């Protein structure tokens, strides 16, 4: 009996919606337990990771994360 045909999904950028091509240099970001982990893209991506197509999208997601963190608690004490 033959193996079932598996569908291969093309990764999509979490920042801008672009599809991954062979020549792209992508990144993944995982946010867990208050930490942000940035690493080169690996296939297949994990469900809890952001797939990002380049530095512009990395900066966008990191900025959103920092905005949430800074908005949640004070950054410094007033003297």
Order of helices and strands: EEEH
The side-by-side strand order for the widest beta sheet comes to 2-1-3
User: What general outline do the C-alpha atoms trace?
Assistant: globular
Strand content: 15-25%
Structural class: alpha+beta
Main β sheet profile = 3 strands, antiparallel
Q: What do these coordinates show?
A:
By secondary structure, this protein is an alpha+beta fold. The chain has one helix and three strands. It has one helix at residues 55-72, and strands at 27-32, 35-40, 49-52. Strands 2-1-3 form a three-stranded antiparallel beta sheet, covered by helices on one side. The mean pLDDT is 80.
List the helices and strands and how they pair.
Layout: E1 27-32, E2 35-40, E3 49-52, H1 55-72
Antiparallel strand pairs: 1-2, 1-3
């Amino acid at each position: 009996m033959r193996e079932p045909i598996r569908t291969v999904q093309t990764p999509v950028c979490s920042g801008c919606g672009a599809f991954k091509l062979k020549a792209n240099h992508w990144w993944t970001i995982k946010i867990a337990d208050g930490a942000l982990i940035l690493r080169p893209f690996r296939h297949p991506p994990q469900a809890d990771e952001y797939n990002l197509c380049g530095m512009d999208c990395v900066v966008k997601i990191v900025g959103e994360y920092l905005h949430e963190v800074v908005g949640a608690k004070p950054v410094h004490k007033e003297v």
